[in-house]
Inverse folding.
């Protein structure tokens, strides 16, 4: 990846932490790999993102996971490929109390497979799983993202 492209995406990732829906929801990108193939986000429980039961609002748990598989593919496939989030599902396993985390990672082989399938078939929806965990590593929510 060219240095100018890397610089552009580094700025984008820093800026996302100031994006009002993330900033006001307590969502933050706390880590990413140098090649942008993995990201880690956190959601701090605040009065902005608490539901009536005092746990994390489900929409905030989903939001912390929303764009990252799409970002990874956009960055790695390049401008000649159009990448969209197509659908998602979330299963709330436990109440989200305190700070929770989510990690998103696509290996080089997975990205190459996406490219090969799209080159062969044109369009295709790829399913990527994700888990939101608390500080103790317990699963709070399970997600599946469909990216086209």
């Amino acid at each position: 990846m060219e240095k100018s492209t890397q610089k552009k995406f580094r700025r984008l990732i820093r800026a996302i932490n100031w994006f009002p829906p993330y900033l006001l929801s307590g969502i933050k990108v706390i880590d990413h790999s140098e090649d942008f193939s993995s990201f880690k986000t956190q959601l701090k429980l605040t009065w902005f993102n608490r539901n009536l039961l005092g746990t994390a609002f489900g929409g905030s748990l989903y939001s912390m996971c929303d764009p990252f598989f799409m970002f990874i593919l956009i960055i790695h496939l390049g401008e000649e490929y159009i990448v969209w989030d197509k659908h998602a599902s979330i299963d709330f396993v436990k109440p989200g109390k305190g700070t929770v985390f989510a990690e998103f990672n696509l290996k080089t082989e997975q990205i190459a497979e996406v490219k090969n399938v799209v080159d062969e078939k044109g369009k295709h929806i790829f399913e990527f799983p994700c888990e939101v965990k608390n500080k103790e590593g317990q699963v709070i929510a399970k997600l599946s993202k469909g990216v086209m």
In short: The longest strand covers residues 126-134. Residues 45 and 62 are 14 Å apart (CA to CA).
